[in-house]
Structure formats: structure tokens, C-alpha cells
Amino acid sequence: MKRETVIVLDFGGQYNQLIARRVRECGVYCELKPCSTPLEELREAAPAGLILTGGPASVYAPDAPRADPGIFGLGVPVLGICYGCQLMAQYLGGSVVPAEADAAREYGRTAARFDTGCALFDGLPDEGVVWMSHGDYMARVPEGFRSTASSAACPNAAIADEGRGFYGVQFHPEVSHTERGADMIRNFLYKVCKASGSWSMGGYRAEAVESIRRRVGDGRVLLALSGGVDSSVAAALLSEAVGERLTAVFVDHGLLRKGEAEEVEREFSGRSLNFIRVDARDRFLVKLAGVTEPERKRRIIGEEFIRVFEAEAKKLGRVDFLAQGTIYPDVIESGAGDAAVIKSHHNVGGLPDYVDFREIIEPLLMLFKDEVRALGRELGLPDSLVMRQPFPGPGLAIRIIGDVTEDKLRSLREADAIFREEIAAAGCERPDQYFAVLTNTRSVGVMGDGRSYDYTLALRPVRTGDFMTADFARLPWDLLDRASTRIVNEVKGINRIVYDITSKPPATIEWE
Ligand code: XMP
Question: Cα(251)–Cα(249) distance, rounded to whole angstroms?
Fold first, then answer.
């Protein structure tokens, strides 16, 4: 049986991923597809509904993104959002005009009135705040439509043709600034598309296991396990599907945080899969010796990782499938459209071509990060693994400014562990990412009666939703005090602690 799916057609708006998220949060599976997706493909997918997203263009721009107008003949309900709404109005005979007067343009929070007789606003208050962001506006609604919401500058802030199941909103219901916006999306899904809401992690797990089994048959699968959330969840899912025909290769490059390699090994060596921990610590350190330039460090680590993986793959002989923990944002952020191209390059930084794989398996390809976490829990992975904060592939090497040595790694690992322990013990709200950075600045200190000349360590806790922008986290002073005192007392080689109070931009989260 086909999975109930809503398709979100992407016209390039900044909130498009958020629309997909909202739909899934309502228990309906949904996929984001380019607006250029051929009509035939959409027909075959037989979606329960279509959502047309916003976009930066004006429908009048010569290169404005378009969809096949045939989508309105598929007999499927459509919700147009902002640009998507204007495009729908334009295709179906309404008129969209540029707002000449500034007063008619609306950006940001805007008060609106709703017709609660419209399915989209059913059960909601008849007025509220919506998030507007548009230059053009709908001057005349298309034949068969009526206006179902208005704002001071926008008489047709929402439109509906209930007979055909076509709805449009000029504002963005997907962003949290729109009051009850999620309920409007829910109404579209359940009251208009008549969705059954069958999307759940338990269901996904069963389906994914079944489909992996069908695909792999009696073949063998190799997975590069980094210890991060995505590849760990992929490993657990694949292990449930193919058991001992899965080999997870975990490359310990010696740049992991304290206790991390052991934790990954503990978790996976207890499962019915072949787990190989490759101790490649020396190889990496030798290659990194004396290297100070951040990009060179990254390149060296990326390449060395591949060399180690290749060597292990060769030892195993023929493996039919290569598995990766690529997730949905990886694909979308890489400018999707051709997922097949992305998968061989993305994520693993170009795995070896000549290792003989028949196919690539990416069982998390359709999941968002928090869905991956939910699936991990569903598969019985511990929270310590599933809720792990992001950790860069090059590991601690890019948190040591200047050259990387065993001594510096040891100091940083200890200091970072203390910082994490103190944050856990304080019971305060955890920052989204927090770690220590070993700078290459040395300064004079006094320890007991003696002089010290040791390194300065920076603490870097940040608050962020998307990791594209971030603000430094305001941790309580007494927590910082405890962490600082413990680090300088317990960790050799560090005699001064500083607090990184820069946002991103202009800084980045990592120092290198
Ligand atoms: P920046 O430093 O660019 O980091 O603000 C944004 C987020 O990405 C993580 N990061 C990486 N993750 N490989 C990764 O898998 C990398 O090379 C890498 N560099 C940065 C960083 O930890 C933060 O969460």
C-alpha cells in the first residue's frame, strides 16, 4: 500500500523546510520536491494534497519559478502559501499586482481577520496575528474563489475555492509568529485533504526495515560509523534489518571527545552486527604533525579517513551495499534535485570509487534531525547517544588552534569533559552546542608558589536553532566559576580560561 503523502512544491522560499516539518508534526508524511517536478511524477505519487511554498520572486519576474499548471487538474487539494498563493491566483485567472505604495507591502507581524466558516480557519479565533512577507498582493480573486481573510493592507489575505479544494494564504502559517498557524496547516491536512495521520516513527521503523530487507536480499552492507547521531541511528536500523550481514566500520581517529569511542563501541558491540573499531590514532597524528592551517587540517583528516575506510573495506572482500547516514537537510541544503549525485559526494567527503559496491543505501534520507533522534530512541539507543550535540568530523583537531599534539589533545579532552560535566550537574537549560577550545596563546600564571606559563582555554557555549546563525549562551556565573576552577586545577597545561562571547556571524561556532 502506498504511504499517505503530501507533496510540498518548492519555489525557493526560506521557510520551505519548516512547512515540511509542520506537516510531519501533524502526523502526515510529506516530501519537498522542486517546483519543476514533472506533472506525471506528481500524478504517479498520488499525493493526498499539494502545498505550494513561498519564494523570493515576484510572479511577474521573467525567471519566476513555475509549476506545471496541470497540477490544478489532478483532482488533489492545493494550499498555496505566499508566492504559491499568488501563483495559484495568477494561473486560475485572478490578478496579482505589485504593491506600489509602501503601505500595501507587508513584512512581519500583521493583524488579520478570518472567516471561520472556511475549513482552513475552522475552530480558530476570528482574528489574530499572522506573519506577512510580500511585495505583490492579490487585487482580484480568481473565478470560483472567495476571500476568507483580510488585513489592513491586504483585502484578500486568504482565498478559498472549497468546491475544488484550493486554498491560498498570503501569509506564512508555518512560522511560529503566525498565531495558530500550525492549526491552519492541520485543518488543511485533516479537513481538506482528509488525511488519516498515519505517519509515526514506529511505522517508519517497520517500513524502513522491510524495505531494506527487500532491497538487500542476502547481500552484505558496509557502514562508515562516525559515532555521530545520524550514522549511529542508521547502524541501529540496518542492524535490525540485516543483522550480521551489516559491518559497521568505526574509525577512531583519536580526535574524539573523552569516552566517546568507548561509548560507541559499548553500544554497538552488544548488537547483532559486525562492529569493527579501527584504531587509527597514530596514523592521524603523524599526518597532522606540525600542521597549523585549519583547511589543511580538515583536508588531511578527510583524506586519511577515506584511506582507512578503503583498507578496511578491502579486507572484508566483496560488499554489495554501502550505507550512509545522510539525512534530509543534507540533501536539501546541497541544493537537491538530483539526490543520486549528492549522495556519493556528500557526507562522507567522497568515499572511494573503486570499492566494489552495487548500491548506496541511505535509510534516513527522508528524515529531519529530530526525527532521526526519535527513530534512534524508538530503536532503543540511549539518550546519551541520540541527544548528542553536533560534533564536527575533524573532531578536536579543529578545536586546537595551531599544531595538534598528543599532549594538547589530552588537555583539551579533559577540560572539555569537565565543562560538560559541570553543565550537566548545574541542571540549567543546556546550550545547543558547548565545548572547549585550546588556543595557542600561553600566558603567565601563579600556581602555589610557582610561576606557570601555560595555555589559555576558551569556553564556547552557543544557542542556535539551525547552526547557521548562533548567539553565545549566557551561562550562570557560578557554573562558569566552577568549571574554570576545576579545569585550571585538574588539567595539566592550562592556566587561564576565557569565555567566547561572540555571535555567529561574524564569528563561526567552531574556531577553525
Ligand atoms: P561553524 O563553525 O561553521 O559550524 O559555525 C556550524 C556547525 O557545523 C559543525 N561543523 C562541522 N560538522 N564536519 C561536520 O560534520 C565539519 O567539518 C564541521 N565543521 C563545523 C559545527 O560543530 C557546528 O555545529
Answer: 6
